[in-house]
Amino acid sequence: MTPEKVEKPWGYYTDIFRSKEAVFKTIVVFVGQELSYQSHEKRDEFWFIKSGTGSLTVDDLAVEVSKDANFAIYRGSKHMIKNTGNRNLEIFEMQCGECDENDIVRYSDKYGRV
Asked: pLDDT by residue (tens digit) across 7-21?
């Protein structure tokens, strides 16, 4: 099975493994771009920064992150990440729970998505 690359306005993600209960993917955020400020009701996420630098916001608390940082984002937590560096920000993401790409509540999005 060839991994599927899914284009987004902020970059793209590629599934490495996907089932109903678990997902493992790579996320690439282009320079100056950011994910929406969002939460999930049915899944937890665990992120590992493979390369690059960014500003991670979880429940209105922002911290700078870079290579080898890792953190958990539990269901219901509002979160986003912005690439603040001069190269692509690469993240490994693992999802656990009910894994559905439509399980997104957006609070803000610079690309106009609802």
From this structure: 999 999 999 999 999
Residue 52 — left, alpha, or beta (φ > 0 → left; ψ -120 to 50 → alpha)? left
Burial class (CB in 10 A: 0-12, 13-18, 19+), 55: middle
Tell me the pLDDT tens digit for each residue of 23-70: 999 999 999 999 999 999 999 999 999 999 999 999 999 999 999 999
Contact present, 72 and 46 (Cβ < 8 Å): yes
b/e per residue 70-98 (b: at least 16 CB within 10 A): eeebeeeebbbbbbbbeebbbbebbbebe
Instruction: Provide the CB-side half-sphere exposure for 109 (13 A, CA).
Output: 15
